[in-house]
């Protein structure tokens, strides 16, 4: 049900210039903020020169993607709404996956786990980016084309992640169990993030809706389940 609402709302959001600016900035943050932390952790922990080279290539792709999306923002001439910490989806995945990122830094998680984490993140991008591009295309075809190019890179990144996680897995059963666990965590995180994004966008009026339509979106946003305690922001920050 929430997925259907999110698809419907995406089209409404991207009709608005402010909504398009926010979505582009949201994607910049995901490419440049959330995932780069995973790469930094890998580079700090792993001595294998071949793996380090692949990590740097992957990281540089994400940095390039962020620059491409920033160019879209500049071309539109809009100042985007800042993306608050509670909309950082990788943090949510880590929360539901038992803090896999932090456990990698302190030596408890493995390279296999970190690349499976990257795999599920990239798989979600491969599924979602075409939907964003499709909804964006009637209003900003140039940005939609940029998102399509980024999607093709993400498809390649999924292949990287699968190959590296298999290489570092102790056995196939362990890999499949961990992949299932992380996919479950990612799915819960994505659903939560969709609700949080809906609530944020409606509250800020990013969709430019009015009257009864705005009221309907507010009802849907406020009926979403509560956020996990670990991801709530202190009241002083609101």
UniProtKB/TrEMBL annotation:
<dbReference type="InterPro" id="IPR009078">
    <property type="entry name" value="Ferritin-like_SF"/>
</dbReference>
<protein>
    <submittedName>
        <fullName>Ferritin-like domain-containing protein</fullName>
    </submittedName>
</protein>
<dbReference type="InterPro" id="IPR012347">
    <property type="entry name" value="Ferritin-like"/>
</dbReference>
């Amino acid at each position: 049900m929430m997925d259907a609402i999110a698809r419907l709302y995406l089209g409404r959001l991207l009709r608005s210039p402010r909504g398009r600016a926010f979505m582009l900035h949201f994607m910049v943050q995901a490419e440049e903020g959330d995932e780069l932390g995973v790469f930094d952790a890998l580079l700090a922990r792993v001595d294998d020169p071949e793996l380090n080279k692949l990590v740097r290539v992957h990281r540089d792709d994400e940095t390039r993607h962020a620059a491409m999306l920033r160019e879209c923002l500049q071309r539109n001439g809009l100042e985007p709404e800042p993306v608050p910490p509670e909309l950082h989806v990788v943090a949510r995945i880590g929360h539901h996956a038992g803090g896999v990122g932090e456990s990698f830094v302190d030596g408890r998680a493995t390279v296999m786990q970190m690349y499976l984490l990257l795999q599920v993140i990239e798989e979600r991008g491969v599924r979602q980016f075409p939907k964003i591009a499709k909804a964006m295309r009637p209003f900003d075809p140039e940005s939609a084309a940029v998102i399509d190019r980024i999607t093709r890179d993400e498809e390649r990144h999924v292949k990287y992640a699968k190959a590296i996680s298999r290489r570092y897995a102790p056995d196939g059963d362990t890999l499949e169990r961990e992949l299932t666990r992380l996919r479950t965590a990612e799915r819960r995180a994505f659903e939560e993030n969709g609700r949080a994004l809906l609530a944020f966008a409606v509250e800020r009026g990013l969709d430019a809706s009015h009257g009864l339509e705005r009221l309907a979106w507010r009802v849907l946003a406020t009926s979403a389940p509560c956020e996990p305690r670990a991801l709530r922001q202190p009241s002083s920050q609101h």
